[in-house]
Amino acid sequence: MSKIILAGMLAAGALIAPVAAQGAALGPAAALCNSNATAVQVDVRGFKARTGTVRVQIYSANSSYLEKRKWIERVDVPVSRAGTMSVCVPVKQPGNYVVSVRHDMNGNGKSDRSDGAGLSGNPDMKVSDFIFKRKPKLATVSFAVGGSTKRVPIVLNYVNGLSFDPVE
């Protein structure tokens, strides 16, 4: 009887282990998120393809958010084979921030029409917003980080005709 119970416990452990590994933080600062230090753990989902790289940028939540080269931290990681990608990005101190994510599908380092993107707060964006460089309201995309790791979920969006929508 104890062999049956042990076998059941091992089987349950085998099912739980991949889930825990899938949620593990990625990137050079992963240890910060894994120890619940002051950082941002960005949970990226909704990939159209499992190719290329993911770029996560953190901006101060002020009027210069999303402006070219105004990010305060940036992490680039290869796209994982499956599941949600949890990318850890360090922040120097507690405060208010904005996250931008880009899925560079072909890994060429340039923004292409096939690339996906997302922002903290997952605002509804249109292709025309990008053409006319309209940013979502700061209150919609900003969030506070305290003395521990802040998790921020982001759903990627891709160009689909004249719209910019999630794949899922």
In short:
The chain is of the alpha+beta class and 168 residues long. It is 21% helix and 36% strand. The strands form two sheets. Strands 3, 4, 6, 7, 8, 10 and 11 form a seven-stranded antiparallel sheet that branches.
List the helices and strands and how they pair.
Elements: H1 2-22, E1 25-26, H2 30-34, E2 39-45, E3 53-60, E4 73-78, E5 85-90, E6 95-104, E7 116-119, H3 127-131, H4 138-141, E8 142-145, E9 150-155, E10 157-160, E11 163-165
Parallel strand pairs: 1-5, 2-9
Antiparallel strand pairs: 2-5, 3-4, 3-6, 6-7, 6-8, 7-10, 10-11
Number of strands: 11
Note the gap between the termini: 45 Å
Query: What count of helical segments does DSSP give?
Result: 4
* Biggest sheet features: 7 strands, antiparallel
- State the helical fraction: 10-25%
Radius of gyration: 18 Å
> What is the element string, with H for helices and E for strands?
HEHEEEEEEHHEEEE
Inertia-based shape: globular
Fraction of residues in β-strands: 35-45%
Low-confidence blocks of residues: 1-22
- Given the helix and strand composition, which structural class is it? alpha+beta
Average pLDDT level: 86
Summarize the structure in words:
The protein has 168 residues and is of the alpha+beta class. It is 21% helix and 36% strand. It has four helices and eleven strands, in the order αβαββββββααββββ. It has helices at 2-22, 30-34, 127-131, 138-141, and strands at 25-26, 39-45, 53-60, 73-78, 85-90, 95-104, 116-119, 142-145, 150-155, 157-160, 163-165. The strands form two sheets. Strands 3, 4, 6, 7, 8, 10 and 11 form a seven-stranded antiparallel β-sheet that branches. Strands 1-5-2-9 form a four-stranded mixed β-sheet. The longest helix has 21 residues, at 2-22. The radius of gyration is 18 Å and the shape is globular. Residues 1-22 have low confidence and may be disordered.
